[in-house]
Amino acid sequence: MIFEHEIPSKSKLYFGECAKIKRQLEATSAETLEQSGFEEIVTPLFSYHQHASFEDETQLLHLHDEHNDTVTLRADSTADVVRIVTKRIGRTTESKKWFYIQPAVSFPTVEQYQVGAEILDGSFDEVVNTATNLVEKLEIDALLQISNMRIPLLLNEKYGVDLKLFSDTNVEAILALDFPWISKLVKLHNVEDLNDLDGIPADIQAELLLMKEAVEKISYSSVIVAPLYYAKMRYYDSLTFRMFHNNELLVHGGVYSIEEVNATGFALYTDACINQKIKNIDINNKG
């Protein structure tokens, strides 16, 4: 039995102080990104092309248009932004920096509000600096983690290491691998650790040096590196970054390519940021 006051599981309801925090967060995000040269875009909630972004279409909510063609609700904004900017409005604008403030929905009833930014032909350090600047403007303390997806992929493709070891963060099994340099790779954590790469194979060193070069261009104080981080993602297969507060993921982004368009981007998870602000208010009130 469904009661009158019930809402679907994992859908969102904001009211009172929470709704005010959400509105202020989105307003600050829009102002900050506009000042950084971004133009705003709001993509359609319905799409003919979302399936191209997902290997597993069960995440998509399917409907049909008036011609009985399949449409899906927006479960991802990145691909639609790139596709619309390059194929539909590209001739009317020269802007390569776009931001959006909108929810994504997925099966069965999952809603996720996001502030996202995409930079066509953008560099990794540019998008990271954009994200960290936004987090600072929102007055959220966060730890920045820099990774390179090419490292676990190389370990899989060239050295035969099962990617599941990295996705499960199975440190014990990784250390048990028959490579004399694997423990050094596991222990890389601080930015300073990237200064000593002796003994690590040259192909992996090259990817670690990309991380080091990127970090040197990032103007943010709380930074760690995680070269063995791996999660199967739709676009990212090179430099990536995440931002956390008390182990809660707030931002995720990196370098990607969609339909031969090279870009960088990130998503700031509005719901998680609101949760952090509410917790801070509660702590201050108790204090």
How does the helix and strand content classify structurally? alpha+beta
Identify the strand order in the major beta sheet. Answer: 1-5-6-11-10-9-7-8
- Number of helical segments? 9
Care to count the β-strands? 11
Rounded to the nearest angstrom, the distance between the terminal CA atoms is: 42 Å
Shape: globular
Write the layout of secondary structure elements.
Elements (H helix, E strand, L loop, with lengths): L15 H20 L3 E2 L5 E2 L14 E3 L5 E4 L4 H10 L9 E10 L3 E11 L3 H14 L5 E6 L1 H8 L5 H5 L3 H5 L6 H6 L14 H15 L6 E3 L13 E7 L2 E11 L2 E9 H17 L1
Parallel strand pairs: 1-5, 7-8
Antiparallel strand pairs: 2-4, 3-4, 5-6, 6-11, 7-9, 9-10, 10-11
Helix pairs in contact: 1-3, 1-9, 4-8
Written overview of the protein:
With 287 residues, this protein is an alpha+beta fold. It has 9 helices and 11 strands. Helix 1 packs across helix 3. The model has no long low-confidence stretch (mean pLDDT 92).
What tags apply to this protein structure?
single chain, 287 residues, alpha+beta, eight-stranded mixed sheet, three-stranded antiparallel sheet, 9 helices
Question: TL;DR?
Answer:
The protein has 287 residues and is an alpha+beta fold.
